[in-house]
Design a protein that fits this description.
Low-confidence stretches: none
Number of helices: 9
Helix content: 25-40%
Radius of gyration: 19 Å
Oligomer: single chain
Strand content: 15-25%
Mean pLDDT: 95
Structural class: alpha/beta
Number of strands: 12
Distance between the termini: 46 Å
Strand order of the largest sheet: 4-5-2-1-6-11-10
Length: about 260
């Protein structure tokens, strides 16, 4: 086991450059166990500080702070509704230098160059045109995965699904109470490109067949910090292969669903 701290290892890896727009997907449990073996406590703020240092003042950090309760009719509160996407995103939400975007289902804790533009986003859609996911493509964003499989939690895949159009999803509206950052409460409606339960699409092993193909092609870079898997990829380089998978392979390396064409 390496005695180098994770933050130092990440810096030595050289994946992150000044000016990067970085979308961070993480499960910090195994990393916390590793640090404990060396008598260290994994401090989320220290990881965030290191990421800020690596992207610099011209960079941007996005931590997913997703919560799907709004889809069940549960009221959303800008300050009180918790993130359901990991310890790192929860830590970012507590910091004064981060702000949370407005979407009640797919919000992000954001910091850096594009923060104000992201905070101005009023999209009611979750994945489609004009959303943060489209902006990630425009800004040539990178994904950093910590402690997860290569495409696990990379929600950009759903953006491509919606832009192309897939037979196992459809657009659906959700309405519930919404309390904004100023304390004003009102009914709001947001939309999501949801799975069609009749076709019952099931994930194919966290999209691992496609991920392994992209690793071989050098689109996804992977390294291991002892037993903690880490990956990175560029959104623009991911976009084309996901489109190709949907259009030319009927999404077989993403989902299995009722009515799917047999492989030739």
């Amino acid at each position: 086991m390496t005695e180098m701290s994770f933050s130092h290892w990440l810096e030595q890896l050289g994946w992150i450059q000044k000016g990067d727009c970085l979308y961070v997907v993480s499960d910090m449990m195994e990393l916390a166990k590793h640090e404990k073996c060396f008598g260290r406590r994994l401090v989320m703020d220290e990881v965030i500080d290191k990421l800020q240092e690596l992207v610099g003042e011209q960079g941007t950090l996005l931590f997913p702070t997703f919560n799907w309760d709004f889809c069940k009719g549960v009221a959303f509160d800008y300050y009180k509704t918790p993130s359901r996407t990991g310890a790192l995103s929860k830590a970012a939400l507590k910091r004064a230098d981060f702000q949370r975007t407005a979407h009640p289902i797919y919000s992000f804790a954001v910091w850096g160059k594009f923060r104000d533009e992201l905070m101005a986003d009023k999209s009611v859609d979750s994945f489609g045109k004009g959303t943060i996911f489209e902006k990630m493509f425009d800004w040539d964003a990178k994904v950093l995965d910590i402690g997860v499989t290569p495409l696990q939690g990379v929600t950009y895949v759903h953006h491509v699904e919606q832009m192309v159009g897939v037979p196992y999803r459809y657009d659906k509206a959700f309405t519930a109470d919404y309390t904004d950052a100023t304390g004003v409460c009102e009914k709001r409606t947001y939309r999501m490109y949801v799975r069609d339960l009749v076709k019952d699409p099931q994930y194919v092993k966290d999209f691992l067949p496609l991920a392994e193909k992209l690793q071989k092609e050098g689109i996804i870079l992977s390294e291991e910090y002892d037993n903690v898997d880490c990956h990175t990829m560029k959104i623009r380089e991911l976009d084309g292969p996901v489109r190709e998978e949907i259009l030319e392979n009927d999404s077989r390396n993403l989902y299995r669903y009722h009515g799917q064409k047999e492989a030739e």
